[in-house]
Every structure is written in C-alpha cells, then in structure tokens.
Amino acid sequence: MSQALVIVAHGSHLNPDSSTPTFDHADTIRASGAFDEVREAFWKEEPSFREVLRTVEADEVYVVPLFVSEGYFTEQVIPRELRLEGWDVEQWDSDGTSASHTTLTATDVAGKTVHYCGPVGTHDAMSDVIVQRAESVTGDPEVGEGFGLAVVGHGTERNENSAKAIHYHTDRIRETGRFDEVEALFMDEEPEVDDVAEFFESDDVVVVPLFIADGFHTQEDIPEDMGITDDYREGYDVPATVDGTNVWYAGAVGTEPLMADVVLERAAEAGANVGNAISRVRAETGGVVGD
Amino acid sequence: MKASLSESLRGAATYARSVVSLVHAGAGLYHERTTWRDLPETRRAFLQWVEGSDERGLGERYAMLVDGGISRTWGQLLVTTRLASDGRRRYDLRHEADADGSLDDLSVYTDPLAARHLATETDDGDYRPLKTAPTLRTGWVFPDLSGEQLVQAVDFFYPATVANWHREQQGDLDVTHWRETAERQTGIYDIVDELSGEQVEWLAESCCVDSQCLKRRQWDEDADTELDVPRGDGEFPCREPCSVVVAAARNWAVLEGETEREYTLTLTPSEKNQLEDIIEAVADGRTDEIREADVYDGANRYRARWLRAKRFDEEGGLAGGDAADDE
C-alpha cells in the first residue's frame, strides 16, 4: 500500500518566504524516504488545497497542517477545500490543543483514504522545537540556566485556541525546569510582547514566536514592538538590549529544521509507516534521538 | 565496378540503418508494452502526449525519438523526448524561449525539486504568486530526466495541470463555476458573492486571459451563464477560480461597494489621452518597455511627472471639483 504525505500550509500571494519552511521540511521528509510521495499544498499558492489530492498517486494520504493552532483553518477551511467527506470537528475530540487525527475519504478523489491530522503547532514535540529554537539563536545547546524564555503568539483576536497553544507549550517547557522563567506573551493582548523586559527578572530572555513562517508579524511587527530595532529594514542585533534585558529574538519557530520531526510524528500517529525516519530526522535536524 | 561498389556500400549502410531503427522500434515497443503498462494512468497519459502519440503512429514516433527527439510545449515549458541507447525514454525540460540554448549557456539541473525554486521568481526577480502566469524565468535546463522525474518537475512548475488535463481528456473534469466558488467562501472572502455577472466578466478579463494566465478557463459565471471573455488557448484547463482571483475579487467587491460620484477635472485632450495611455501601459505590463526619453509615449515617466507637476494640487491629488463635496 503506497502512502503520501501532504503538508498543507497558508502560503502567500505577496511574500515568497512564506512557503520556504514548508518546502524545507517537505524536503527533509522526502530525503528520509518515509513516504512514496511528499507534496506541499497552500491556501494562497499552488497546488491549492482544492486540487492537491488529485496530484498524488498513493492510496493512503496523510494530511498534516503546518499551522500553529486549531481553529478556522484546520477546522473549516482545510477540510472544506480538501472536500473531506463527513468531516466534523467532533471527530478530533479536542480540548483545543489535543487534536490527533481522523480518517476520512474525499469526494475529490475516489479510492483514497485521507488521514487528517491535527496541526503541528499543538503537538507535544513542538515544545522541543521551541527549546531547540532557543538553542539555535543563542548558539548554546545547554541554554537554560540564567535565561528566561518567552513564547509569543498572535493572540485571541480571531481564535481562542491560538492562545491555548501558546500556554500549552509554555507550561510544558516551564515544567521541565530548564529555563529560569518561561512566559507566554502576545501581539494583540495582555501580556504584550511590547513590554517583554517587564515580565522577566533574568538578564537574558530568548523570544520565540510560535509562527510557521517569517513574514510581516515576525520580521516587522514584533522586532519593532519590542524595541530591538526602530526600523525593521535596518535589522536588529541578537542579542539586543532593551531596558537592561538582553533580548535574543529567534524569529519564527517554524523555520527550525526540527519542525520536520513534528510533521512526521503527526503522520506516524495517524498510522503512517515511517520506519525509523523519526529518529533519523531528529538526529539530522539536531533533535534528541529516541525520546 | 567502382560505381557498383559504392552502390553496394550505400545499400549496406541503408540496410544497417534500417536494422538499427528496427532494433530501436523493437526496444521502444517493448518499453510501451512493459514499463509504461504499469505506470499510474495520469502519468502514462502525459508521457504519451509529450511524444505526440495523439498525432503520429508508433513507427514515425520511434524514427523521430531516435533522430533528434520529439518536442512539445506545455505552457512555457518545452519537453523533448529522446530514446536512450537502452531503449528508455529520457526527457529534456527547459523554457520554450531557450529551445536553441546549449547546455553551456543554461544552468543545468538534475533534481526535479529545483523546479519549485525556479518557479518562484520571474527573470526580473519578482515573486510569482500564480504559477501559471506567462512569466516563467528562463536560463535553466533539466537535460536528462526520467519519465517520473519529468512529471514531478512539471507538477512543480505548473501544479495540478497534468492531473486536471488528464481528467479533461477522460471527459470528467470537475468544473466549479464562479457562483459556487464564491458562495463557498467564508471569513474575509465571504463578500465575493456580491459581484454581479458584469463584474465577474471584468474579473475574468482582468486576471484570466492568456496574457495573464496560461490555463484555459473552463469555468463560467455558472453552468448556464457563459462569460464572454476568451477562455484562452492553453493546453491545460482551469477548473475553478483560483486563490489569486478570489483575493482580487474580494478587494473589488469592497471597492465596488462605493457610491459613484461626479468629478469635474480640467484636462487638455492630450492629457485625457495621456491618462488613458498610462492605464493601458500599466494594465498591459508595458511600463518597463517605454524608453527613457520617449516623451511621445503618454506613459513615459517624464510625461507622467509633467502631468503630476501641472495637475496635482498641494494635497498630492488631481485638482478638481467633487460634485458630492459641493452638496
């Protein structure tokens, strides 16, 4: 039985970098050989969600949304556009961060089984990616002691699950005790990322936005809001000192190579036979093997 | 005797050539009966199409495959099929504008995944949000792809075109017309269903004609209401308004919600013509072609700057009476 992985992401009509992480993670998984086919699909680029299923030849298709939280896209747009038959959000039986997968067919393609997975952003392994992002930006594989960690989300403007995902990972990382402090901050609600230094006692704070791709929010808004630059076009220092605190700004967590592992884990939990690809990809992308 | 010897040699050469060609044809026939038989249907149909199986018979095809290959275009892509010495097909894929380019002149690629990156920007470095826009960059070649790799590369350049083309060939292309697409939209796109039939015509004329997109538009306002705008001559069909069209429609639905007003502007006839020239030049993507000092072209930069200097008021807009403001 052949199997395909379809990674669905937002993409952009304006910003070519939006789809870059999707392509990169897809390539890592292609190289692992875990799937007969790997295909990217986008809301704003091509192939569209609407037409991607017809481009894969496999009978078993694992669809993994490269989105940070459960909500409008994962619950309404993607299932509607993929034409998943009989989709009901209840099938995920989720509390807002616990969607795993459900198995359906799609009216677009006869004879294929579609395993529709929860978004990468709420998977437990995402906590590891956030920590790894902190390691990457500080260049210190042991980073933690003496450091604060801020996990930044968009906020509840449109979707309460967006904040739930941020709190979920913040709590999980805090419980490990690795960082002196771990806080959830937001762009458009309290506590706001603008005042990052106020929420930490540590002299050094790593700021990791839970966003899939770098773009307007992560490259322009957040750096300017935090005050690590006056004009995003001039860039910013890492670390940059704001009100006496060294801010280590990591950019979108979704660009971290270890994200490929989260995609694989989602598909594996939905029943994909990925062999030992998870441990191989973790090793390759700097993750901890075998945990 | 001499004449007869040379005749014999010529005969022998001709005979040798025909034996070679028979061997090739045999190998090719074997290939069709074995390798191709097990391919997924869509891929096989496309590989048969690129070597013109709908236009010529097996014998003619094999003679051509051996002697220089068979070329066919798919959008702006040029695919050339050749028969390798082992009887397998190998494919050369490049931009049609590079048909005569040698491998030394072009950037050579072997991995179909590279197509995804080649498709991202135009020759000028502009982002291409619409993969089937006729703006594919030039200067690259995949000189030696397998059939599977060719289809993969084509699907990265022009996603889903092979699948949709094949469905159309089979007579079961699922077309989704404008009204159905518009009514399905939610969120910020919810309002696109407010566009009238006439506005949908303008939408298709703006975004969907051959100068803007190489897909052949098969959707209409609805199944019973055809649009007058030309569908295009493309090889592969467009089965539904795409995300670029829906996003554009959203903005036009918003803008069309404004009430029309009357403005009173003072322009010379040449200035009115100039405004028309500027709109035409932008709409046709011609601004880059207008020569620096060609002040006879209404859309020339110096001409536009003159008009701005003369006619814009202190607020940076066209000075003119707005009837509504006077009410």
Automatic annotation (TrEMBL), chain A:
Gene Ontology MF annotations: lyase activity; metal ion binding
Name listed for the protein in its UniProt record: Sirohydrochlorin cobaltochelatase
Keyword Nucleus: no
Keywords: Cobalamin biosynthesis, Cobalt, Lyase, Metal-binding
Coiled coil: none
Tree of life domain: Archaea
InterPro entries for this protein: CbiX-like, Sirohydro_Cobaltochel/CbiX
BP-aspect Gene Ontology terms: cobalamin biosynthetic process
From TrEMBL, chain B:
Entry superkingdom: Archaea
Ranges of residues in domain DR2241 stabilising: 60-169
Pfam family membership, one: Fer4_23
All residue ranges annotated as the DR2241 4Fe-4S iron-sulfur cluster binding domain in the record: 171-250
InterPro entries documented for this protein: DR2241_Fer4, DR2241_middle
Signal peptide: none
Identification of the protein by name: Uncharacterized protein
Organism, scientific name: Halomarina oriensis
Species classification: Archaea, Methanobacteriati, Methanobacteriota, Stenosarchaea group, Halobacteria
